[in-house]
Every structure is written in C-alpha cells, then in structure tokens.
Amino acid sequence: MEKVGVYICTGCDIGKLDVEKLKAVSQEFGIEAKVHPFLCSAQGIEFISKDLANLDAIVIAACSPRVKASLFNFNGKYVERVNLREGVVWSHEMNEHTQELAEDYLRIGIVKAQKAEKPEPYKQETSKDILVVGGGVSGLTAAIEIAKSGYKAIIVEKEAELGGFARKLYKSLPTSSPYTRLEEPIVAKLIDEVKKLGIQVFTSTIIESIQGQPGMLEVKLKQNGNTLNLKVGAIIVATGWKPYDATKLSEFGYGKMKNVVTNVEFESIAKNLGKKDVVFIQCAGQRDEKHLPYCSSVCCLVSLKQAKYVTSNGGNAFIIYKDMRTPGLWEDFYKAMQDDPGVFLTKGEVKAVKENGGKVVVEVANNLLGEDLTIEADLVVLAIGMESTMKGLYTIKEEFPDEKTVPYKHVYEPRLIKSAEEVEQIKQIGHILNLAYRQGPELPTLRYGFPDSNYICFPYESRRLGIYACGAVRAPMEISAAMEDARGAALKAIQAVELVAEGKTTFPRTGDVDFPNFFLQRCTQCKRCTEECPFGALDEDERGTPMPNPLRCRRCGICFGSCPERIISFKQYSIDQMSSAIKAIYVPDPNWDETAAEKFRVVAFVCENDALPALDMASMNGVKLNPLVRFIPVRCLGSVNTVFIADALSKGIDGILLMGCKFGQDYQCHFIRGSELANRRMENVQETLQRLMLEKERVRVVEVSITDWDKIAGIVNGFVEEIKKLGANPYKGF
Amino acid sequence: MGGEILVIGGGIAGLTSAVEASETGYSVVLVEKTPFLGGRVAQLNKYFPKLCPPFCGLEILYRRMRTNPKLKFFTNTEVMSISGSAGDFSVNLRIKPRFVNENCTACGKCKEVCPVEVENEYDFGLSKRKAIYLPHTMAMPFIYAIDEFKCNKCGECVKVCKYNAINLNETEKTLNLKVSAIIVATGWKPYEARKIANLGYGKFKNVVTNMEFERLASLNGPTNGKILANGNPINSIAFAQCAGSRDENHLPYCSAVCCLASLKQATYVREQYPNAKIYIFYIDIRAFGRYEDFFAKVAKEKGIELIKGKVAKVEEKDGKVLVTAEDTATGQKIHKEVDMLVLATGMQPSLAENPIAGIEVDEYGFVREKPGIIPAGVAMKPLDVMFSNETATSAALKAIQFAKR
C-alpha cells in the first residue's frame, strides 16, 4: 500500500507514552502521524474518515485488534491495528523500555501496512448444486431440505433403492410426548417427498472420482457400467453406518445358537414374532476394548422399542444393561417402558448364554437383585453397535503413515503401512468419495472412522471445504437426531456454495478473499506444503509441484509457514511483509549504543485466535510483562515461516518465543495441526541455530490456551530471564 | 430495521445459529436479555470431553460477528410478544437501558469509583461486583453496563468517564421488528437446588451446585480457580447425580449433560488435589457416543469411585458433609463424610417460568416447533454444547427457508 495514514489515540492511558516520539517514528517512514484523544468516538472516526480519499491503508495505534473492530472498518480498506493499550501501557510499567516497545510496535504496524497489497478474490463460474451421497434417512432429509431452501440437490445411492438402513425397520421410536406409541418408519414419507420435489436420484450408483474444488467439483458417477458426469458446488456425505460384525460375539452364543440374533436381525423377525420371551443383552460388543470401545447411543432406546414388540405380542422382555442411556427427553420413553408389566430391566453382567432344549438360558451376575440370575427365554437379542461406513477405509495419507513418516500427534489411530502395495490393498476395500485430492480420497477421520472436526464448538467443520458429513457416518445416532444432523450439514453446504461463489473462504476466517499465491518458478518440489496443508487444498503434478485450489483453502497460512523457498505468500500476509516487519524492530547496536548491553530483544509470535486474547486478558487483569518482548500476532502458529526466526536472529534479536494452541489428540488449534507443525519445524530451526553458532534455548515453542492468562507472565518474563543468562546475541550490530 | 431472521438468546446456540445463518448470506438480528452475550457456556471452566476452555470457541464466534455486517445484535433486550405467521412475524422488543453507550472504551475507571457493591450473578452470588461492570475480561460487547436496579445514581462514574459514555437518564425503548423466521435459543437455568430439600442445599455451606462448582474451578471465578471448602483444600468430595433430574417431583426428564459434567469436574479436583477421594453417586452413567472414551478414561483415574445409588440424605457435622445413599448394587446403605458435595442439578428451560407470548412450550417448558418458530439448543430439549451447536445449525437452515437472501 502506498498511501498509509497513521492515527495515534491518546485515550485510555495511551497518552502516558511520549507521543512526540511516536510521531517521530512515523516520520522515519515519511508519514505525518495524526493524534486524537479519543479515536473510537464518532469524532475520532470522522477525524480518520475525512482523509480516506487519499489513503490505501490506515494504521490505528490504539487498542487491541480485538476491540472496536467493527468501528475501525473503512469500506474494506486495509487497517493495521497497533496495540498500544492492552499491548503496551496496560501490561507494562512505564519507562524507557516500554516507550521503545511502543515505538517498535508502531514501526511494525506501518511496515505491515506498507507491504500489504489489495487482494483480488478468486472468482470463478461456480455451481451451487449439492451432491448428497447416500439415500438413507440422513441423505434424503438433507436433499429435501436443500431443495426446500431453493437449491438443487442430487442424491447418489449405491443400492438399487432409496431408504438405507431405515427401510429395514419394523417400527420407529416414539418422537413426541407421551412416548408410548411406536411410530411407522418415516423413510417412506421421505422417499415420497424426494419424488414430489423432483430431486434427481441416481440409484445403483457409485462415485468413481471427484476432482476440483468446491463450487466446481467434477463428479464422475458410475451406474450400471455407464459413466455420468456432474458439476456440483458442495457435497454431503450421508453414507450411514454398518452393524458391528456379530460373528465376533461368539461369547454370547451368536453363530452357535440359532436363537441368538442381533438387534438388526430382530427388526425383520418382529413382524411375525408371536408370543415369545426375549432377553436383550445391551452393549454387546460395545463399551468394550476388545470390540467397540464407544457407546452407540441408540441401543438402549432400540431395545426398549423392541421390548415393546415383545410385550405387545404377549411375551416378556428382559433387558440386561450396563447403564440405561436414555438421555434428555428419551427418559419419558424409558419410564413408559418401565411401567410396562411385561418388561423386566436390570443392570447386570452376562456370564453365559446356553442352550436348553429349544430355549436359551442367560446367566446374569452383579445385578440389582443381589443374587445371580438365570433367565430362560425363546430368543436372545444382542444389542450390537454401529460403525461408521468410513471405518476401515483408506482416508488420507496421514492416517496411514509409512515407516519413514512420523505420525501426526492429532491422529488417534495411525495405521502404519509398509508399502505402496499395501496401500493399494487397503484401497481395494472400496471408497465413498474417491476424491482425486493429493492427500487422500476421503474426509480425514478423528477416531473410529468418524470425520475430524473441532466437534464441540464447530461440529460440521470438516477438513475438506465444501464437504460435510451427517448422520450415522459422523457419529452414532438415532433417526430423529440424524434428520436434525442432516439439516445442519445442509446449511453448511449451502453456506459453502454461496461463499465460494464470491471467492470467500469459510470458518474460521469466513469471508476472507485473500489466498496464497505460489511463485512456482522457484519451487523445488519438496512437497512440504502439499503434505502439511490440513485442508488438502493443494494437489501436485507428477513432478511434485503444488497445484493450488484456492476454493479448498481456509487461509490459515500453514503452507506459507512450511515453504523453505519462501515462494508462498498472501497479499496481506507475505514473507516480504513479515520479514520487513521483524527487521523494523530497532535493535540497539553495541558498537555505538552503550545501553545496548541491557536492551535485550525478544520476539514472540502469537496465535491470534487464542494466545493473543490470552495476552489481552493478562493485560486487563493487571499482569505486567517484560518490555523487552515484541509480540507479533500470526494467523496460526503453523503460519510462522522459519525464515522469520532466521531473520530475527541474524538481526540480533536475542530470543524467540512461539505461543500457540494445544496440539495432539485433543487439539485446540483451529487449523488442526498448526501448533503441532510449529513444534516439528523447530528441528529445522535448531539446524539454523547451529549454523549460526547460537544456543538452542534461544527459540522456544509453548502451548497457551485462551484462558491461560495467569501463566503468561511466568512464561514470557521467565523466558527473558533465561535469555539474559545466555547473554546477548553476538550478531547484534553486524 | 430489516432483520429477516430473529434469534432470541445470545448463548452458544443463539450465537451459532445467528453466525451460521448470516454467513450464509441472510440478515440476522440477535437479541439477548442480559447486557452481555455468551450465556451459560461463558460461566463454564472447561468443556467435556476435550477439557478445553469455552472462550476459545466463543472468541471465534465473536470475531466472526464483529466482521459480519449482516449480523446485528441487541443486548438488554427482551421479546415482549410475537404475532403473525411464518414469513411475516411482528415482534415487539423492549430494550432496557444500559446507561453506557458505544463510546465506552472499557478503560475501567468507572468501576474503580463506583461505591455500590452487589452480588455477582456471573459467579452465582459467590463474589461481589460493582453496579457498573463487565462480568469478565472476555465480555461481548466489550462495553460496561450499569445494573439498573442496584445503581444509586450517585454519578461518580459519570464524573470520571472521559469519554462521555455514561448517561444515567437513559430510558427504556421499545422496538417493533418484522421478521420472517424466529430462532428460539432461550436456553436454560440451573434447577433451583433449594427445592430438593433432602440434599441440604442452602442449609449447608459446602453443598454446592455443579454450576457453582464451575465458577469455583474457573480462573476468573470467586476463588481464582482454587477449589476450596471452608477456605481449605479438599481431601474428599462427592457428586450427587440426578439432583432433581429423573425425578417426578422435580424434573422428570434427564438433563443429558450432568453425568459428563460431573466426570469433567472430577478431573478439576484431580488436577488440583491428586490425592483427594472422589465419590460419584449415580443411577446410570450416561456417557453416550464418543463420550464413552472420556468416561472410561476418568473412571480409571486414581481416587475416583463410582457408586450406583441415589443420595438419600445429606447432613452436616463439624464442617463436613455427611452423605447417605443406598448402593443399588448391594442394597446396603453407604455413608461418606466429605469436604464438599456437588449437586449435579439439571437444566430447566428458561421459558418454563418466563414464557414469551407467541411461543408455545410443552409441559416442561421446552419450545414446540411450528413453522417459522424454531427452537435451538436447550430451548428445544436438554442438550450439551456439541448437540446445541448441531441443533443451532439445523435451526439456521429451517430459518433461511422462510427468509430472503
């Protein structure tokens, strides 16, 4: 940006700084800074606005970028916030060092603004149609809701008929008060509605490949040997679940005794059940390390429903459970079934299942009656669990590391593979999406085959922009929950097609139009960017050169951080910009500045999502920090290029701190593995340090969560003390 | 005023549905009854099962709000009535005075001079705050508010405010909105523990609710995150599950979160007092789905004992809490003497006692969906944060079907 305006606020104690000196700093760049006592007031905004016609970028030297953000917004012009309030006056004792801190922050701000460029959105002709993969309850619901929202939905189902698993059900759970009447399965109604809405349906069809990026995904379908081509904007994965393999449950007599069946099989028996006594064994092969460690959420409800099949035929139902899990309003259904005289419920452990004549005998220990129990019945139903249809699939490379690759810590269940042939074998299992993405053909999973996301706060945010999962493929759930889930995923898919049509990205930098540019003439095909991108945005040509897909990109800057040749840059977050900003820090030269010896300089790169707010909070809670440290916010710790560190060290910066989010299995990084990558890259940094003959302690990565403000002072001030012990960086003044 | 979608409630469900709908391109107006957004989750120390801080997700939502011109919000605003039908609702709002305007820079000088100290509802009365206040340093909006009923109008704050941000004469306003769809994300409140007479809440000092316990464990809570009983460290603690939930005399339904909340809170205790004895009295541990992993992990930890049985009686003796329960597995009566008892009190929908004209609720106070009036989060049914966010996203979809981009 050529025309940069600098505005300094003196409100909120900022005026305690020597503002004349700050103006002099601005003067170093040939810019006459303007000073206002209350920049966020209407008058203050007016004060800036009247200059706008002559400005490309505005530097606001006032409070934290987290404050008054919507106010300091000037028709999309570039705004750089210099954090003098939380970052300087509120968090430091006022002295010469603190003044120098403020001056450095102003230099950094001005340089960043000068080096920023105007981004041009990546606008293409896009499709807003949405492909729904799977024609069960989730897929049907998603397609119906998409159509009702005014978008075109297309369903692909691999079976010959729509309906999925729910078609096999005899009855459904009651969905409303008083929870006593079982309902007719809703799936037939959904299929009718799909027809009525004229939604395009491909049955007996699988996906051969998907290429491209959201808004312009090219889908190849295979139906009865014919290939069909579609262009869609987004995809919903609603491929549902498969029952756990009951043949592994011989401990309950399955496969050995004909009167032991699964809850899935029982649905087809139910219609012609007759008067039978039935024992239901809950958690069969679930909550069990040997089988499925998790709980399938629905089996308690399903057994209660199936008990109703039994009692309405005059039989007795015995339910042996570990815990009855009927959360929320399902408790009403549980209670209704407890009142059914034909239903007998107890906590207990099944010790044995035996055959006796035509009957089955179940022995139960540790039940609520105090003594062991033997139940003779006509039938035993095993409440087996649900597995995601993605379980066991070759999803992405990082979940299948080879012997040379160090597995990522955020991957729960890395499955080590030995060779490319082995991968080919695993791939034979068959795939759902067959994405022609460099990193792998499916959505990355977190655990047990369930897709990865920051699942508490942002459950639908998958790691592939424009591709969202719902229903039992995403987590075990019952029908009404799957329908609700399908609506959530439908919203995300609609949102994605709308955003990418304008060249914008989605969560968490929603609306950002800036995207990474690759100067490929200098690419060495090291493949770091293509491997490290958490969102699979980069493909590769046969030589290993990255092929960017801006609409898959979430703009985290991890590729930018990964590149050893520094050929990746955003318009508003570039190597030149950040390196220049670091070099703008004034490092006193011991050759002619006698105070230089005590003026150590530390740079801290901080994650703007969590570490920066933690710093703000520390400041507001009266925490005082050492003024020798310059905090520089970054998009994600993964967007710190090691060249920043080399630049800083060769300039004479004495120590470097990187503050980012918790990583590993319960990662908090909004970009999945940015902080983990920052840690990994430290190995390269150590080489740089060695080359420069500097101590390895000069660079440190720490995990800071957003509420860790109480730990900030210890971390930061402690680090400065350690650096002081190491002594000054010998490169000062070179 | 042209809000196409109205979201009632600024807690996690309301925020999520408002952000998701507006990022899809629709105009959204969110109204929140209290002076600040964040709702119940802002009072939590950590989320289960990742044990991560709620402010991490809130910060991202707030940032998305700040930069989204399609999303407007009003705090201190109540919905008085709703009329009309889907696609064409008329909503009457009452905007209570905040007495502090947008000029506020949150410099905090006013708080220093305010002479009025009141009970801090953010900490459930376990701490004090001033009549002019920010509840915490992550507050949204980041503008002070004056407690209408507690302020004595002394004017000291006005004198020190350099930014002309305070007007003690501000009055209530009303506003009429025409909207196409309404997302009801009015959330919940903790069930009143005093009503569960046998559990000793309100009588014995060291009997606390699970929500109070969140505050006790939070760094920004009344004890700066240190869990203390009578000012002393904890050697033993008990959790009484289903305190008021799954109980015909109180909340007949299951509140769906309390088992996991107590397991999570057990980890707070373990972190601060690795040698403490922790007893969890339960009927069923409802750690469904992937939460089973969390249950399995916590149950294995040292010092945690799970007892199947409902707490029947609570007494106090020499500053200790005596808990009596019947172990349903053995039939025996169990007595435990502990430093603190945490009641896993359930969630009651906010509309149960504070209905809004035009929104229909069921016998418990949960919202009945009808065209254009769409519940999200706990207004719909008892849900944890993850499921609240799912229903909130789903609610956004239902809402956009009635609105125009």
What does this structure look like?
The complex is a heterodimer of chains A (734) and B (405). In chain A, the strands form ten sheets. Chain A has a five-stranded parallel β-sheet with strand order 7-6-5-11-24, with helices on one face. In chain A, strands 13-20-14-15-16 form a five-stranded parallel β-sheet. Chain A is α/β, with parallel strands linked by helices and 734 residues long. Chain A contains 18 helices and 32 strands. Chain B is an alpha/beta fold and 405 residues long. Chain B folds into two domains: 5-96 and 172-189 and 348-400, FAD/NAD(P)-binding domain; 192-345, FAD/NAD(P)-binding domain, CATH 3.50.50. Chain B has helices spanning 12-23, 54-66, 109-113, 156-160, 210-217, 258-272, 291-299, 385-400; strands at residues 5-8, 28-31, 71-74, 77-85, 88-95, 117-119, 128-130, 132-133, 145-146, 173-179, 181-184, 188-190, 207-209, 236-243, 277-282, 304-308, 311-317, 320-326, 333-338, 340-345, 347-349, 373-375. In chain B, helix 1 runs parallel beside helix 8 (385-400). The two termini of chain B are 15 Å apart.
Quick take:
The complex is a heterodimer of chains A (734) and B (405). Chain A has five domains: 1-118, Rossmann fold (3-Layer(aba) Sandwich); 130-240 and 389-501, FAD/NAD(P)-binding domain, CATH 3.50.50; 245-388, 3-Layer(bba) Sandwich (FAD/NAD(P)-binding domain), CATH 3.50.50; 517-562, Alpha-Beta Plaits (2-Layer Sandwich), CATH 3.30.70.20; 587-734, Rossmann fold (3-Layer(aba) Sandwich), CATH 3.40.50. Chain A is 28% helix and 21% strand.
